[in-house]
């Protein structure tokens, strides 16, 4: 249109080339959508710096949207070293990356996800790879696959390893399965040949399987594919017992053991001593053995040597398999990897009978011992005096973990069910579809004892109780306030007329009411770097009446309030190998983040390095060099803690973004030696 003055100041402006304004401000005056994108958590460096001309020609060009080059050719102007590094090591490239079709996975300006991804990583991959269809009916699914975290194992750009794996198969698998790494490192360890050769995929599928443990075939079939069950050495070693349908893992460890033959570490004494006749009727010489031919009925055989202590005390409740003498329902008779010859670790064993409990794990709120498979934290294995084989009665069992709740029993005002130790009045023991494992909607649950129509209830709630959330004012367990009002009531709580009309309606919109007193928040909300939640209103994070902590934060903690919106962080942590303590179950997001606004990205309270240093005070002195002058070649900016670590949770140790075996280092350091585009180790007083 010939209007040069729309962008240029005739005598001089804030930006180069007489640009009227510096940074991104000039472009976003017209490009509103990009202005909004600047508020997203991850912004492309040229955009955040206002260097729009790095990608776009300011006056005109041959390509749509004035981009200086098409597709991957534009990206390669900055990111060419990434491709060259992979080619230097003869890597196979991911087709979209090889073809320069970066927009298949990435957006150009800003995203809510790391790496400017267009969507969640797993969903992006599923657009081309049908892994999702294969896992639908699978019996076992690899945890990163279930979480959609494909980047835990695969490099999205290229790799010299099969399947774009980010490292050699064995060392890469052992990054997460480090229990095997510890066992392999023990003196005298004997390794199964596929494990020794790093051929994990000889026995296991990478994504999902119709068998347990991601196995490619049933155990006996898989073992027989290498071990000839008819060979003389095999039949001799197994005393002539048939092996076609043998449960090989009931005696052998498939990975590593301290004994020849890879026997499981916990052995039944007769098995270890080779006295099979202690339990089995041995066939005459020359005749085939029959594994089921026992010297006594199974229900009697075990009790000839083993009588659980609990049974000697005349218990009120006996576990059904114990009462039936079906010991092998839970124990293996020969050798096991678990103490007491228990057949399987965790809850997998219990779920074989208690499938209804396993189904509860799919609910939105799950008791942590149930999620972790720690059934024995609450239940006895053989017998006891409490219903459901509970180890203690009522709240005494709950208080073994919920110590803070136990302290509430000393409060001035205590809810009667809680005082009586009857937690099950309100809570489910395993899982529920309501917060806090509640048995029903909170208001319905309260109404079972507190009838809304009672005169006392009507008097205390002049606006009625029809739509009230009881927990927004009352602590369900105990409080120092009368009527169990939460310990930190709003200053105007009790003077309803400050906010409400006589009929209960608000005097004004909620946010307008809040800023009448909290005027500083109104200023913070108007800032360009304000928390987006402020646009949803104060009540998205705060409760208007009473809370248990200062600030009237909703939920059990500020973490709970944050995760109500940032659900992707909660989902990632469920399958993360390492989780930052302050974002874990006992953490507080406010340790690192400001609530309303900040001069830093991601609402950090200070620069990323300062936030990290507030707890990790010594790392800058002895760790990898970071900071000014140490360039991250991927971004062209200074290397920070976040160059290698993710702040919330990852599939690798120490919150690392990639496998520490190699994949992490080669993000910046090429195989030619030295960093790719920055100072070497020792550039700032660090070790390396």
The major β-sheet equals: 2 strands, antiparallel
Query: What percentage of residues falls in helices of 4 or more residues?
Result: 25-40%
Q: Can you count the helices?
A: 32
Low-confidence stretches: 672-688
| Content-based structural category | alpha+beta
What is the overall shape? flat
How are the strands of the largest sheet arranged?
A: 1-3
Average pLDDT metric = 87
What is the straight-line distance between the termini?
A: 56 Å
Strand proportion, as a percent range, falls in: 5-15%
Rg, Cα atoms, Å: 32 Å
Number of strands: 22
Short descriptors:
single chain, disordered C terminus, alpha+beta, 688 residues, two-stranded antiparallel ribbon, flat, 32 helices, 27% helix, 7% strand
Layout of secondary structure:
Blueprint: H1 25-28, H2 32-37, E1 42-43, H3 45-48, H4 71-88, E2 92-93, H5 95-98, E3 110-111, H6 121-126, H7 131-135, E4 140-141, H8 143-146, E5 158-159, H9 169-176, H10 178-185, E6 190-191, H11 193-196, E7 208-209, H12 219-224, H13 232-237, E8 256-257, E9 266-267, H14 269-273, H15 298-301, H16 309-312, E10 317-318, H17 320-323, E11 335-336, H18 348-351, H19 355-360, E12 365-366, H20 368-371, E13 383-384, H21 395-398, H22 403-408, E14 413-414, H23 416-419, E15 431-432, H24 442-447, H25 455-460, E16 478-479, E17 488-489, H26 510-517, H27 519-526, H28 533-536, E18 546-547, H29 558-563, H30 567-574, E19 578-579, H31 608-613, H32 619-622, E20 627-632, E21 637-639, E22 649-650
Antiparallel strand pairs: 1-3, 2-5, 4-7, 6-8, 9-11, 10-13, 12-15, 14-16, 17-18, 19-22, 20-21
Helix pairs in contact: 9-10, 26-27
């Amino acid at each position: 249109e010939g209007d040069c003055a729309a962008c240029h100041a005739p005598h001089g402006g804030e930006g180069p080339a007489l640009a009227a304004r510096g940074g991104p401000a000039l472009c976003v005056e017209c490009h509103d959508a990009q202005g909004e994108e600047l508020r997203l958590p991850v912004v492309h460096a040229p955009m955040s710096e206002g260097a729009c001309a790095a990608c776009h020609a300011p006056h005109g060009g041959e390509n749509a949207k004035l981009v200086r080059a098409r597709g991957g050719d534009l990206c390669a102007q900055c990111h060419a070293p990434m491709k060259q590094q992979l080619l230097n090591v003869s890597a196979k490239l991911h087709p979209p990356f090889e073809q320069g079709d970066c927009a298949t996975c990435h957006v150009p300006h800003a995203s809510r996800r790391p790496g400017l991804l267009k969507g969640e990583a797993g969903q992006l991959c599923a657009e081309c790879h049908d892994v999702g269809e294969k896992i639908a009916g699978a019996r076992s699914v690899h945890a990163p696959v279930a979480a959609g975290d494909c980047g835990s194992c695969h490099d999205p750009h290229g790799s010299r390893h099969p399947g774009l794996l980010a490292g050699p198969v064995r060392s890469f698998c052992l990054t997460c399965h480090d229990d095997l790494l510890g066992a392999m490192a023990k003196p005298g360890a004997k390794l199964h040949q596929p494990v020794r050769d790093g051929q994990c995929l000889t026995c296991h599928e990478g994504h999902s399987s119709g068998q347990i443990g991601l196995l490619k075939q049933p155990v006996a079939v898989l073992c027989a594919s290498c071990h000839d069950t008819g060979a003389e050495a095999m039949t001799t070693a197994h005393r002539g017992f048939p092996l076609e349908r043998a449960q090989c893992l009931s005696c052998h460890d498939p990975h590593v053991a301290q004994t020849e033959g890879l026997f499981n570490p916990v052995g039944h004494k007769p098995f270890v001593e080779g006295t099979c006749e202690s339990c089995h009727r041995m066939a005459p010489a020359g005749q085939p053995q029959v594994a089921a031919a026992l010297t006594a009925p199974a229900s009697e055989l075990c009790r000839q040597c083993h009588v659980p202590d609990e049974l000697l005390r005349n218990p009120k409740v006996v576990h059904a398999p114990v009462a039936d003498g079906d010991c092998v329902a839970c124990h293996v008779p020969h050798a096991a990897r678990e103490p007491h010859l228990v057949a399987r670790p965790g809850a997998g064993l219990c779920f074989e009978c208690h499938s209804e409990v396993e189904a509860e794990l799919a609910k939105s709120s799950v008791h942590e011992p149930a999620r972790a498979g720690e059934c024995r934290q609450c239940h006895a294995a053989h017998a006891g005096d409490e219903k459901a084989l509970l180890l203690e009665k009522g709240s005494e069992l709950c208080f073994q973990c919920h110590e803070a709740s136990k302290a509430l029993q000393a409060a001035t005002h205590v809810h009667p069910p809680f005082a009586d130790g009857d937690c099950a009045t309100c809570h489910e023991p395993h899982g529920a579809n309501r917060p806090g494992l509640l048995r029903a909607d909170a208001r319905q649950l309260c109404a079972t004892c507190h009838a809304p129509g009672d005169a006392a209830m009507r008097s205390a709630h002049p606006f009625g109780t029809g739509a009230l959330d009881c927990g927004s004012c009352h602590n369900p367990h105990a409080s120092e306030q009368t009527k169990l009002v939460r310990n930190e009531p709003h200053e105007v709580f009790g003077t309803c007329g400050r906010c409400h009309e006589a009929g209960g309606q608000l005097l004004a919109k909620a946010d307008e009411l809040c800023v009448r007193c909290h005027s500083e928040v109104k200023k913070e909300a108007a800032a360009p770097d304000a928390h987006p939640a402020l646009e949803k209103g104060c009540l998205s994070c705060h409760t208007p009446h009473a809370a248990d902590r200062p600030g009237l934060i909703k939920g059990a903690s500020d973490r709970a309030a944050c995760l109500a919106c940032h659900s992707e962080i909660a989902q990632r942590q469920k399958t993360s190998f390492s989780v930052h303590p302050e974002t874990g179950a006992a953490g507080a997001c406010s340790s690192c983040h400001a609530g309303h606004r900040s001069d830093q990205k991601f609402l950090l309270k200070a620069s990323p390095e300062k936030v990290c240093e507030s707890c990790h005070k010594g790392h800058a002195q002895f760790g990898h060099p970071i900071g000014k002058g140490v360039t991250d070649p991927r971004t062209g900016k200074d290397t920070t803690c976040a160059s290698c670590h993710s702040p919330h949770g990852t599939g690798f140790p120490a919150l690392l973004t990639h496998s520490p075996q190699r994949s992490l280092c080669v993000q910046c350091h090429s195989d030619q030696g030295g960093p790719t585009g920055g100072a070497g180790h020792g550039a700032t007083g660090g070790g390396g």
